[in-house]
Amino acid sequence: MNKALSNVIQLLELERIEDNIYRGPSHDIGSPQVFGGQVLGQALSAAHCTVDEALIPHSLHAYFLRAGDYNAPIVYEVDRARDGRSFCNRRVVAIQHGRPILNMAASFQKCEEGLEHQSDMPQVPGPEGLSSNIDINRSIIDKVPEKMRRFLAHKPPFEFRPVTPPDFPNPQKREPIKHIWMRAWETLPDNPSLHCNLLAYISDYELLAASTLPHGLRFDRGQVQIASLDHAMWFHRPVCVDQWLLYSIDSPRTSGGRGFSRGQIFTQDGQLVASTAQEGVLRVWDHGK
User: Is 248 within the bounds of a domain?
Assistant: First the structure.
């Protein structure tokens, strides 16, 4: 299996320490701290370990409390808050070096039929013929500072093909909208929990960055602070992350030192399978003043 994808799957396979207590390793993706999507995916995996296999997650709401250390494992404590006939709820605390780094509530439901409607999928080019982020990053990696090269050189577990390629060396102000095709590098087992956990992991990629697009920010000059504060996600339908998915992201508001973004995830045939929302710190310093 693709090494990057295999590594993330191993991250999501937590070690059971005690009833409702699990431990997961961390990994370095080239950022200064643990990738938030890793903590989300592992927290959801910990919650999955405590519910019946017939239940599927329909939502999660998480707060990032502290930056994580990718050199140390993370312990996940699960509170079985409620077990009902149709729904159950879990509260998860991620702990590292004796302090919580994330709080998350996740709700699970037994599958049932009901009324249906959904938003239309944006009319954008398909993934065929688009360049992948790996090729885009390779073409510009010698044009960015060393501290950015580690991140750009990291190979994620999914292939990303942006409809509008980013231009890190020369960012231009544009609408706070981005569309990205994504899928796991290889075919995965038919395991609904694994696909949901991986989607939670990958949902943190690219999301908050949409709030920077109208401002043409240069991340290579050390003048920008961007960090996730919270993350919400809703799973609408079963999902296969080894098939092409369109992540359609917009940012309706940035103010008060915070950026807000929301996303919709569609299958290639237009089915809306998940929605996301995230707010984060977004500060810019002018070192010339």
Answer: yes
CB 232 within 8 A of CB 184: no
Strands 158-162 and 224-235: unpaired
Largest CA distance in the chain: 61
CATH number of the CATH domain containing 38? 2.40.160.210
Q: Looking at the 3D structure of the chain, how many domains does it have?
A: 1
Task: Tell me whether residue 119 is in a domain.
Answer: no
Q: Specify if 123 maps to a domain.
A: no
Low-confidence stretches of the chain (pLDDT < 50) are 288-289
As annotated, the active-site residues are 204, 228, 278
Given this model, what pLDDT does residue 221 score?
64
According to the model, what pLDDT value does residue 289 have?
45
What pTM was computed for the model?
0.93
Residue 202 lies in a domain: yes
Give me the domain span that covers residue 262: 3-110+130-284
Residue 282 tokens, joined: 């977004």
